[in-house]
Amino acid sequence: MNFIKSATSEGLADADGVTHSEYVNLYRHFAKNRELSIIITGHIAVSREGRPEARCVFLTDGEGYPYKLRTRNLRRMTEAVHSENPSVKIIAQLNHGGRQIPRLQLRKNKTSICCSPIQKKVNKSAFMFKTPNQTPQSCKYIKDQFVIGAKQMEQAGFDGVQIHCAHGYLLHDCIKAGLIQFVMEILTEIKDQCKGILMIKVNADEDNLKFINEAIKIVDIVELSKGSYDNPNDMIENHRSKPAACFIEQHQELTKQKAKICVTGGFHTREEGQNVLMEQICHYVGFGRLYLMPQITKVQRLSFGRMVQALSKFMPLINAGPATIFYEEEQRRIAKKIALKNEDEMKRVGIMWWFVCMIISFFGFQRYNTIRDMTK
Ligand SMILES: Cc1cc2nc3c(=O)[nH]c(=O)nc-3n(C[C@H](O)[C@H](O)[C@H](O)COP(=O)(O)O)c2cc1C
């Protein structure tokens, strides 16, 4: 079936950006699901400075200890996926956080530079993020980081990469600021230097049409979705509609190109995804939350839905933060083989999590995962 498990950050790397056995467990779990034709990893930062969150995988250059261990452990994951299901493709999502790196995380990233071509505060969530002070033109090395990252992922056995150009991160800002050529250079170099599948994730917005029309000539799959911290009300908890599917219905000409189109966001059941495929609106449907709850067949607003909606009028970030942390934790439960058993359990844990997550997001507290079980 043309279903994709969209990128969902799993927070399973240690402080060196190295993954361990839980990461392998999680992706083996996804590979067992025969509905999926493509699995995309949670975002992998192309550098330490580009990490949007503490526990995501990040890439480093050179031949030293973290590099070798990281590549070997990622390879263990891709091998596990391929041996579990030889027909599924495993894709690494590469990202740079740009201005969407929380202040506290910037310090952990050992930099104070928050780079983006968009010189304005992140709307309504400015307390969490710094005003950008460097543009990608002046740090051209970012382009090389993406290209080197893509090559490293090839060495680690991935079937390809997805370049994250959505959700308010650095490359999304570049597109918004008219630096389409900069992003196109990254894609062209990766296409020239790597053999695997090349995907992009981009927001389904009219403003991005020019970029989508350019990129579609080069890449293999364009994934359309919605949301950014500029507009948290567009993010996951509010996805009652299917914004990317509506967008592609209005731009059917995009599906006539060589590249395939995937729409992601707001599909609460498999049937909803199947209907869109049967109507031939697009080639693939992407799911985020549905595959993070193995025993649950329908994505529902978490039990604290109404309260969140009321509070989000004053503090839009709570529409995104706690829900994302809740689902991220679900992935860690799958990785530890203690996933929630049914919907009642999910609701109970959901409300508890919401309170915990409110506190975690408020203080920007992020703990490191220090598992070291694959170091030998
Ligand atoms: C826990 C969690 C983590 C996510 N992490 C990423 C990510 O790393 N990269 C990305 O492009 N999107 C990420 N997303 C967004 C999803 O890929 C997807 O676009 C969004 O959840 C909407 O799809 P859904 O309605 O099927 O959940 C994340 C979503 C969730 C719930």
TrEMBL record:
Residue span, NADH:flavin oxidoreductase/NADH oxidase N-terminal domain:
26-176
Task: Please give the Gene Ontology molecular function terms for this protein.
Answer: FMN binding; oxidoreductase activity
Which keywords describe this protein according to UniProt?
Flavoprotein, Membrane, Oxidoreductase, Transmembrane, Transmembrane helix
Alphabetical list of Pfam families matching this protein: Oxidored_FMN (PF00724)
The UniProt entry, under InterPro entries, shows: Aldolase_TIM, NADH_flavin_oxidoreductase, OxRdtase_FMN_N
The transmembrane residues are 351-368
SUPFAM superfamilies, per this entry? FMN-linked oxidoreductases (SSF51395)
For this entry, the protein name equals FAD/FMN dependent oxidoreductase
The record lists the organism as Hexamita inflata
